[in-house]
Design brief:
4 strands; alpha+beta; 15% helix; two-stranded antiparallel sheet
Length: 60
Amino acid sequence: MSRVCEICGKGKMKGNTVSHSNRKAIKHWDANLQVVEMEVNGEQKKVKACTKCIKTSKKA
């Protein structure tokens, strides 16, 4: 299964780690995904969601 948030679509990000001598190495960051039961269209469903989406849904 992919590491993508089912609500907002956030996934893997890519960038560079830069050393003191200015050498670049590619680094990957995964989204902080959690499996949570959420109410979708009136029914309980297990969803992979990023923590930002979980926090926002609890406010609503």
